[in-house]
Every structure is written in structure tokens, then in C-alpha cells.
Amino acid sequence: MSAQPATGWGARIALRFEARGERTVLAQKQQRGPLTVQRAFYPEAAACHLYLLHPPGGVVGGDRLEIEAQVAAGAHALLTTPGAAKFYRSAGALAQQHQQFEVEDGGVLEWLPQESILFPGARLDLQARIALRGSARLIGWEILSLGRPAIGERFDQGCAAFRLRIERDGKPLLSERLRLDLERPLQFGLDGASSLRGLPITATLIATNATAADLDAARALVAMQSGATPLGATQRGATQPGAAPPGFALGLTLLDDLLVVRVLASKVEPVMHHFRAIWRCLRPHLLGLEAASPRIWAT
């Protein structure tokens, strides 16, 4: 995926969360360029809720965003965003967003951003790497909107590469890649046989320390929400197919103790609805806490 030399903004934010007394605090913050955070919120006793902001409101070709967060032992951070990330049309330069999270033994990270929207003609390299140590726990998701389906817009120009890697103590738990290149639509387009079934929304939810009971609970919840058995609910290769509503396909997989939920959809709203419901369902067992939704979700 070649690109012209970058000429845009460079921005970086690095955060460190530490447990102090009965609360997690933002102990360190380094920032350069247009990335920042709002003040911390504490809708529950200990966890630090923080909203990541990109004031320009969109990313263009040549921009490079670097987002880093460290969660110390015993700390608990919940990170979200107040709105969708927007990646605009590029004249040729590549936009980059690299995310790197580290969670130390006994720490907890919840990464729950709004969706990322790719406008037609965008050129994007999006990478996320999450390193866990010891008994660190994670619940997170990434939601990609290829175009703006609400207005009938389709991602029919441009290219994008997505990489997700999760590891514990240096050993990979999950490593996935997705490549879209509309200059080669038969191989790397939305409608390819091994691609996205022509659906513009692709999303992944991940949760560590999960069990077969969590897989069953998530499956039952999805069935209740959508009125259909989720497609491809699996545990170590065992599948149980079912029907899904038009324009919506969801699969659940348990890889050892890593629960992975993957969705293809025609609209963002049902994906966000399902992911938040699954998060509320799993959080009490996986984290020992009832769900406390970030305030920004209600606005």
C-alpha cells in the first residue's frame, strides 16, 4: 500500500494509570499535537473513566496519530471517545493511527471507542497492539464503518490496512489483519469472496479471562437481542450455525480464555447496541463490577 510522503499533522499522547488509595488516577500524561483527554470521571468507586479527544475532528492523508496507554498493577482504566473518528479522502498520502496499550499484572483496561469512519478515497494504516502481563484483564472493541451507510455512501475508492495483535507475557493470543484496496477490488474489495460480503461495517469485540459460561451467556444475549441464533458460535472449533437478520452477521469464538465477537453489518447502530449489551453482560463476571456506562454515551 504505497503512498506519497506524509505532509500532515503528527500527534501523540501517552498515558499512565496507577492505583492510589481507592482510586485509579492518571499519573502521567505526555502529549504532542492535537490529541488530548478530558478530566477523569469516577461514576464507580475505583475505575478511572477517561475520554480521548482529537480536536480537529478528522484525519487526512499524511496525518499520524499515536495513542499509548499503560495501566499499572492494580489500576483500572476505561477509555472511550466522545464521537466517531473520521478519516477523510486523501490526495495520495497515507493516514496512520497506531495504538499501543500495556496492562501490567493485576491491571484492567477497557477500550471502548466509538466507530472509525472511512470516507471514500481515504488511505489508512490502522494498527492496535495490546500487551498483557500476568493476570491483566481486557475488554475492548474496534468498529470500522467503510463509508457512511446512513446516507448511502460506500467506500468505493481508497485503501486501508488494519492490524490487531493481543499478547500475554510476549505470547500471541490473537493476531489479525484486514486489507482493502479498491484499486484491486476483486482481491481486496468489500465484495470479494473472502472479504466482507459487501457489508460496510466490520467490528471485533475481545474479552480476556472468559469461560465457556461467558460464551453461552453472550450467545443467549445475542439471540434475545436479535431474535436469532448467532452465526458461527464456536468453542475450540465446534460450530452451531443459525439464522441472522438481513444485513447482520455475528460470530462468537472462545480461544482458550479469549472471547472474540466478530460482526459484519449494514449499519453501525445495531453493532454498537449489541457490543454494549455484551459488555454489560460480561463485565460482572470478568471484572467483578456491574456495568457503569460512560456518561458520554448518554449524550
The proportion of strand residues reads 35-45%
Say how many strands there are. 19
Instruction: Measure the end-to-end span.
Output: 38 Å
Domain tally: 1
Count of runs of 4 or more consecutive helical residues: 3
Summing up helix and strand content along with how strands pair, one would put the structural category as mainly beta
Net shape: globular
| Biggest sheet character | 12 strands, mixed
Query: Rg, please?
Result: 19 Å
Given as residue ranges, the uncertain stretches (5+ residues, pLDDT < 50) are 237-243
- What order do the SSEs take from the amino end to the carboxyl end, as H and E? EEEEEEEEEEEEEEHEHEEEEH
Give me some keywords for this one:
12-stranded mixed β-sheet; mainly beta; globular; 3 helices; 299 residues
Question: How would you describe the overall organization of this protein?
Answer:
- The protein has one domain (10-298).
- It is built from three helices and 19 strands.
- Strand 1 (10-20) and strand 2 form a beta hairpin.
- The chain has helices spanning 185-188, 212-226, 268-287; strands at residues 10-20, 23-32, 36-37, 48-53, 64-71, 76-80, 85-87, 95-103, 108-111, 116-118, 123-132, 137-146, 159-168, 171-181, 201-207, 233-235, 238-240, 248-255, 258-265.
- With 299 residues, the chain is mainly β.
- Helix 2 (212-226) packs antiparallel against helix 3 (268-287).
- The model is unreliable at 237-243 (pLDDT under 50).
- Strands 3, 4, 6, 7, 9, 10, 12, 15, 16, 17, 18 and 19 form a twelve-stranded mixed beta sheet that branches. The chain has a seven-stranded mixed beta sheet with strand order 2-1-5-8-11-13-14.
- The termini are far apart.
- The protein is 13% helix and 44% strand.
